[in-house]
Amino acid sequence: MRVERELMRGAGPVAVLKLLERRAMYGYELLEALDAGTQGVLAMGQSTLYPMLYNLEAKGLIAGSWREADSGRPRKYYALTAKGRKRLAGEIRQWQQLSKAMASLGVLTGAVTPSSAQSLGNGVAA
Amino acid sequence: MTGQEKTRVAAEQGAGADAAPARRGPRRVHVRDLVAQSSLPSDVQSVIVAVVGRTRLWRSERFEIARELIAHFEDGIAAGREPADLIASFGDPRQAAVLIRRARKRQRPLLWWVWRRTWQGAAALFGLVLVLFTWSYIRMVTVSPTITHDYLADMNARAAAVPEDQRAWPLVREAMLAINDSRTNEHQFAGARPGEHGWDAVRPILESQVKALDLLRAVKHSPGLGYVAGHWIAPEDWPLFHPGVPYDPPPGPEAADDETATGIGVIGVLLPQLGVLREAAVWLKSDLWLALETSDGERATANLEAMLALAEHAEEAPMLVNQLVKIAILHMTLSEIVLVMDQHPQALTDAQLERLAHRLATFGGGGPLSIDFSGERALFYDLVQRVYSDDGRGDGRLTAEGLRSFAGRDDVAPRWNFLNALDPLLPLYGLLAPSRRELTDAYESIIGEAERESRTPLWERGPSTIPAAVERLHRTPIDAWRFMLVTLLAPAVERTTITVENTAMARDVVLTIIALERWRRSHGGLYPDQLDQLLPEYLSALPIDRFTGQPLRYRLENGTPRLYSLGVNRVDDGGRRYPIGRDRAPLVFIEWKSREEMAELKRRYDAGDRTTSVDPAIFDTDMVFWPLRD
Question: What is the pTM of this model?
């Protein structure tokens, strides 16, 4: 299942930063990792990924460098910068808070929780 | 691709994406050459070339993106994916190019962004200016001036009303043509008196021009000058103003005196007769002294009367310049009378003195000397109606037709010629120019202030309020430019009104001096103890000290009368004479200063401030008019 564009706009860059937290990766590798690591939820096309990488690079959150791959072909690897790490930490905190909030509403499990039930009971018919 | 080209492309790749690609060589390397060098299928290559091409990025940027996309597709194919699948998952090439372009541009250096924003700002500004200019231009060219009033006819009304056979101008013209016929270097000494440099040169001219001088004396019998001013010199006047030059007719009958043509009007009117009138008065002045040498009191009196007549005739048109010439000739005449009374007190008979006094008292109709602003108003409003449209409610806007015509007039004073390079700036003038109502309101604010000030007796005036009125118009530099026409055309009345007041006082002084002499003759050679003894037989009113509003001071010193003004310090210093230089004509006045200005000058002087240009003699002296020397 793919997420809607608006959700992807927020989640995509964070996902890329998170992947690069471990090590530098190149474009195709990132695409594969996003697809495989999220069961296709955050899968994106090259026309989405590369502009995203360029934007992150422009903001100084990642840095690109050309290296020669094992095959001898040149590849551009992207690595997280210190600024990127700091931003990633902030984004993670926000996502954790968001998840918690969504969990309390039962969004993550689909169940009706006491707090959401209370809100429902105040004016919304079951 | 040839081996040489592949080598070049590879060298570019090795040098790094930001390296400047080779600029020399037989063929410039393109992105498609780089892509073609790869082992990718042609359909994939096409996608890469299309996307990179659409980004319209810098060459180095395109190369780097191409390299990255090549690597991406090669990785995908190496991972076992089908090219078609990779192409399908790539996304819309157009959208990709837009997103890539947007994102890569964000990586460009700050300087580039500054440069770009500057150009964008300049382009936006240019666009805005273009729109405004176009709008302004359209506004200016879609209206025309409407000439509704013939101000030139108003200006010439007095002259035109004088019956042709009674006009003084033909007499003046004939006389001056005769005097200036076969002009020599000696003519430059016109106005010289006996004992002065040039008198020996002037005397033979005077003696040979009796008939011409008779003509000048005859002008006193004319009810008016009768000089109808226009935009061209009449053929009969041409030799007077352009001696020795063949007559230059006007371009066409429509240009000669077409008061309705846009751009001509009152401001282009020629007033060359004023200079001739002044010159004529100067010759009469010299002849006055020749008459005195030969004890011809009648001729001397007639000369003075003729000079006064010339002064009155100068004011036939109500322009300020006419009035200034009138004042100048009048002041000249008054000075000569004082000198005659000083050097030849017996030259004129009682009857001649009485005649002269009467002529002086009735000068200009007998009322107080004042400035008439109607001519200046006519000039301004005539200009406005030739440059602005008229909406019928007193308002309108600047017209291109009017402004071009005005700027293109060669007969307008040179100071307006900067407007000749006008066309490209027309819309700018239209944008910034005030409306007709704004302009006329601004003008009235200045001229109204000038009129009010001129009506205020000198002794009641403080510092002039006209500079403040002008300053109110110039709140911003733009306003100063917008209302430039007003400040240029608003007459410099501050000095003019003071000159008029001084001349009025001079006339009173001369009337008093004549009255004193007449009294002396009829009272056994003795002068009156008080001035009011002259009333009413010899003097109709006591002369007023323009500095105080009180009668001039008078007293007898050893039987000799002393007539003086308190002067600019308004303090009676006992008639101690302000030291005017010997070469100065009589009836010269200390420069006017208001009470407030004098108090400030005195305060600063007493405090040791010597930076002002004030002559300290003004602090403890008076303006002594009679006798001329101690």
Answer: 0.74
